[in-house]
């Protein structure tokens, strides 16, 4: 029989042994991988048909499968690579199972900048027939990819005549100048218009170099999150370095499919729009100063419209007109109705 003191001592030793097994010093714990890889379909199958250039510009929210099937056709119904910095392989599974019409989908989820130089990652990107940038936090994309082999491969992918697309954060970085969200949040229209020259309007240039988007600043979730004002504020700052900068916003659930010749048509099952924003001139900016800007042309691209990204002309626009900003307040914005403004 074990005496009470001895019993307590034995139990204490057992508890210490269990705790030692459960606890591992931080220095010896396995680090989180720099990236995760998911795959569905036949990654080694031959591509069924030739690829063709194309841009899929998605405003966030639910996917329009018709637009994504167009993208799959531009990719030769071959191998799609989805890039993201959060989540897992769910977007790849949706692409393969619900959109369909592709040989395989591989998803790369980045957790660290070092993954952008990993030979396995670069090999997957190099053989992609179509590349799609998922939503999330575009600050991660800027921090993980800007100035890396991944960014160079994305540019090279497009030069080879293959399609690329993005939704939400993924679309935000496709423009020649983009909102990087490096302020630690997602600025709204009132705050951006009140101080477009301030530190919170974090624009990023010389990142990706997409055809016909060199002078375009993109924005997403457009009507749902009332982002017309902030896109105008982005343009006010972008015009300080690029006098040709214009804006292109896309509503949730809508997608612009841009052909090789630069003509774009909107897929929008819920009646959304794309918004072409073309200001005149370059406003004066200083940190802490609200925006004043006259003559901001706004044109709505609807389901029956055609946008030419070469000339920036819209055939059969859904609406058009001019707006202005007075002391940080947007006035007179045209649109299909109050809900869209």
Average pLDDT number: 91
Number of helices, where a helix is a run of at least 4 consecutive DSSP H or I residues: 9
The tally of domains stands at: 1
Biggest β-sheet: strands ordered side by side in the sheet: 1-4-3-5-6-2-11-12-15-16
CATH structural architecture: 3-Layer(aba) Sandwich
* Unreliably modeled segments: 1-30
Give the distance, in angstroms, between the N- and C-terminal Cα atoms: 83 Å
Radius of gyration: 24 Å
Beta fraction of the residues?
25-35%
What can be said about the biggest beta sheet? 10 strands, mixed
Task: Describe this entry's structure for a reader.
With 341 residues, the protein is an alpha/beta fold. It has a single domain (40-335), classed as Rossmann fold (3-Layer(aba) Sandwich). 26% of the residues lie in helices and 26% in strands. It has helices spanning 4-22, 65-74, 90-99, 119-126, 138-145, 149-159, 169-172, 189-194, 228-238, and strands at 35-41, 55-58, 79-84, 104-110, 130-133, 164-167, 177-179, 203-205, 216-219, 246-250, 255-258, 263-267, 274-279, 293-301, 306-308, 313-315, 319-326, 329-331. The strands form three sheets. The protein has a ten-stranded mixed β-sheet with strand order 1-4-3-5-6-2-11-12-15-16, with helices on both faces. It has a six-stranded mixed β-sheet with strand order 9-10-13-14-17-18. The chain has a two-stranded antiparallel sheet with strand order 7-8. Helix 3 links the parallel strand 3 and strand 4 (104-110). Helix 4 runs parallel beside helix 6 (149-159). The radius of gyration is 24 Å and the shape is globular. The protein starts with a helix and ends in a 10-residue tail after the last strand. The model is unreliable at 1-30 (pLDDT under 50).
């Amino acid at each position: 029989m074990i005496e009470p003191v001895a019993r307590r001592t034995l139990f204490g030793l057992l508890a210490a042994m269990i705790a030692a097994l459960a606890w591992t010093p931080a220095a010896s714990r396995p680090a989180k991988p720099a990236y995760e890889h998911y795959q569905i379909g036949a990654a080694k199958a031959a591509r069924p048909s030739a690829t063709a250039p194309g841009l899929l510009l998605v405003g966030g929210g639910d996917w329009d499968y018709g637009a994504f099937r167009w993208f799959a056709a531009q990719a030769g119904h071959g191998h799609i690579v989805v890039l993201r910095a959060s989540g897992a392989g769910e977007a790849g599974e949706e692409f393969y199972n619900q959109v369909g019409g592709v040989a395989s989908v591989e998803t790369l989820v980045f957790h660290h900048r070092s993954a952008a130089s990993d030979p396995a990652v670069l090999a997957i990107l190099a053989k992609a027939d179509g590349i799609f940038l998922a939503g999330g936090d575009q600050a991660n994309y800027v921090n993980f990819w800007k100035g890396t082999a991944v960014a160079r491969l994305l540019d090279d992918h497009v030069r080879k005549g293959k399609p690329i697309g993005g939704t939400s954060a993924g679309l935000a970085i496709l423009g020649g100048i983009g909102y990087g969200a490096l302020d630690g949040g997602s600025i709204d229209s009132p705050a951006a218009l009140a101080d477009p020259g301030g530190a919170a309007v974090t624009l990023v240039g010389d990142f990706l170099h997409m055809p016909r988007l060199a002078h375009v600043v993109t924005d997403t979730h457009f009507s749902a999150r009332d982002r017309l004002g902030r896109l105008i504020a982005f343009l006010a700052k972008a015009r300080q370095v690029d006098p040709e900068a214009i804006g292109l916003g896309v509503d949730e659930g809508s997608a612009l499919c841009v052909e090789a010749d630069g003509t774009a048509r909107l897929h929008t099952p819920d009646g959304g729009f794309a918004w072409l924003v073309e200001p005149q001139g370059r406003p004066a900016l200083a940190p802490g100063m609200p925006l004043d800007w006259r003559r901001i042309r706004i044109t709505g691209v609807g389901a029956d419209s055609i946008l030419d990204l070469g000339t920036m002309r819209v055939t059969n626009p859904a609406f058009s007109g001019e707006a202005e900003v007075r002391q940080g307040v947007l006035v007179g914005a045209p649109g299909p109705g109050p809900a869209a403004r």
